[in-house]
Design goal:
The protein is of the alpha+beta class and about 170 residues long. The two termini are about 25 Å apart. Helices cover about 30% and strands about 20% of the residues. The longest helix has 13 residues. A 6-stranded antiparallel beta sheet has the order 4-3-2-1-5-6, with helices on one face.
């Protein structure tokens, strides 16, 4: 029997727990502690957020310094295997500059609370967990399955719960 060994690419996601009023709302709706998702890609921290960091043109999907978050009390770094880092990076490049999806947060909440699927806009706007689910889909996750509902309804805790089993 011949065994084939391959080296999978790895990617690191950053799951954070905030304490702002809107973070408390997210925690209550999700019944969890994770309120934000970012990740390390393209030599930077990529995240979609509703508040501009220095240099951001408007709220949305942007690259920030790779040292923005540290693994520890408020953030958990989770490294995952994917089939293609190049494909994940290409999707990340496509999403850069996408405006933030304020309504996407409400859509995900409505889906979770009432099991209804309001209309969504696909990749026209991005929230944090949606951004990283799309990047992971492009890269081809290994060892775990992404949630089986629409990407537009993935909230931070839902994404964390889906990927934690695939951590390396």
């Amino acid at each position: 029997m011949i065994r084939r060994y391959f080296m999978a690419d790895k990617i690191t996601l950053i799951f954070c727990s905030g304490d702002a009023w809107y973070s408390e709302v997210i925690k209550a709706v999700e019944h969890g502690t994770i309120t934000h998702v970012a990740g390390l890609i393209l030599g930077s921290t990529l995240e979609a957020q509703g508040i501009c960091d220095a240099g951001d043109k408007y709220p949305g999907c942007w690259l920030h310094p790779p040292s923005k978050y540290t693994d520890g009390q408020d953030c958990k770094f989770v490294t995952l295997q994917i089939n293609s880092l190049a494909a994940a990076e290409e999707k990340a490049r496509e999403l850069l500059g996408t405006p933030y999806s304020f309504h996407g947060c409400i859509e995900a909440g409505v889906q979770m609370l009432f099991n209804l699927e309001p209309p969504v806009d696909g990749e026209l706007t991005m929230m944090c967990s949606e951004t990283w689910t799309r990047i992971l889909e492009a890269g081809g996750p290994i060892g775990f399955a992404l949630p089986d509902f629409k990407v537009d309804f993935v909230a931070p805790q839902r994404l964390y719960d889906a990927v934690i089993g695939g951590a390396v």
